[in-house]
Amino acid sequence: MRLSRALAVAAAGLVVAPLLTSGSGLAAPAAGSNTWQPALISTEPLYDGSAVRMRYTEGITVVAGAGAKVYFTSSDSGRMTSDGRRVHNRSVQVSEPQGVSRGGAAAAKYADTGRSVYSDAVAAGFSPAKARQQARTQDGALLAEPPIAASGCVYSETNYPDSDFEWSGCYRLYNVDDADANAWYGAGSGTAHGWGTGVLGGGKELQKGYSEVSWSGSGAEIIEASPAANTTSSSNCGTFTVGLSQIVELSYQTPLCKDGWWVTWNPTVHKVEWHGASAGGSNDSRSASGASTVRLPWSTPTVYMNYRIGWTYACFC
User: What pTM was computed for the model?
Assistant: First the structure.
């Protein structure tokens, strides 16, 4: 089996790639069986150097904090559909660190530099309308949110064989002030959306897409997550309210269609996954989104929030 995993380590003004290592206490995603390894084209510091924009082949752009790590994985098992299309799996993961005593300072610096999810999304390549959707400023989608300590976006519009195909998203790492005698806390959220295109003439049918937030740190345990279980919509496409309330107050609305979401929640991983068939372009878009709160012992000084988006498509390619 051939393994595929590329890692770029981002620092202000510096990107080193590819490497096959992970940071201390940081678990890299499982490698796949294909050689899909987007190559770094360029890196550009943003704001005051606290963030970086990385452009890769395959049409992928990542905007993340200067200390973030980026991983690519794929798994192409050779499975084919009944009409002869090949099935491909792809994912991009961004891992952001947060220290036990740096949350408030990071949130203040984030605000002082003028960063926002909207500006991250635009820098990554989202249209203004899609950037507003990611920022949850569209149609009153954002109801309550704690201060943001870090954010970033992945724009994964693949150039080959169809530039109209998309599965992209953004994440937030929040500042959490609450703590007790035995633990400190972190919280984060991730959203992804996209669509497939007609399979004839080189298009790609989107069959699955997900947004996942996991936490890497000794003793990390997710104590609250939303959505907490598989869910669906009674209407063709409506909205779902993602909410946290135990440690932080977070509430926002995100699109949810009748085909619904499959939810995975274990001590360190919260994954929201859409399954179905989208081939109608942007008018046939789907979304996945979730949020979680993590508890960490005082003996763990740093936690990594790992934001991962993944997609499965079928095509004659």
Answer: 0.88
